[in-house]
User: Fold this.
Amino acid sequence: MSKPIATVAVCGAGGTMGAGIAIVAARAGFRTICHDVAIEGLDRTLKQTEGFLTKSVERGKMTGADKDAAMSRLSRTTALDDLGVADLVIEAVFEELSVKRALFKKLNAICPDSTIFASNTSTLSITEIAGGSGRDDRVIGLHFCLPAQMMKLIEVSPGIKTSAATLEAAWLWCEKAGQLPVKTQDKPGFILNALLVPFNNDCIRAVEAGVASPEDIDKAIKTGLGYKMGPLELVDLVGLDTQVRLCEAFYPITLDPRAAAPPLLRRMVAAGLLGRKTGRGFFTYNSGKMFGA
Assistant:
């Protein structure tokens, strides 16, 4: 049995996904260290986090005391050495194999042997990420769904060398964090994105073909299929550039034409229309608040 997890570090906490993961951990009672390379991103997401938790209090989802306690568990740093006290490190950094491997290699020299490393990737192989870590048996995939602070599902993906003890400890942490874990194979997209990426591309192609406006496509799917979020709203939240990277990961493996990036998607990315993070994608956004706040 691995050491019980009490302290969680989140790398990439200056971004949307990382900030959401940090909320999940702190809200559930874990001491949470938010790390990013720039303090500006951490400053922004700290303000957004407080706004989100304040809205949670207003909606009766938590008490004011619970909110204050969650905020008190959050700390921020730009120094990797500060992550040496973490029992679990979750990375939500740039979706590139070399970046993730380099991060885990540095952390391997900082963190004790008992620390578990988890990757939030949905496009890269957990086994390949673990290969550069120096602790292949203690690396696992924990793929949160956007927005992480509102979605319960976590896709838990062990690599080839991930130990049974690591899988057990990560699974137990997910449950203690109030999340719903499901086990998947170490394959790009796991469950959700393997199904969602082609479907979202279909919706983008429908916009490009003039079938309907983004507003009406999302309205039809939410109303007719019962989705809580429209597919084009979701692409805006994930980031259009991220959707392109997902396509580039899936298409060479599946050769499914539905997984190939639609031309409209590539044109919008080239124009800098990346979704919520740039204020405009398929929809326009004027608020700097965290989703759900």
Summary: The mean pLDDT is 95. Residues 7-183 form a domain with the Rossmann fold fold (CATH 3.40.50.720). DSSP finds eleven helices and eight strands in the chain.
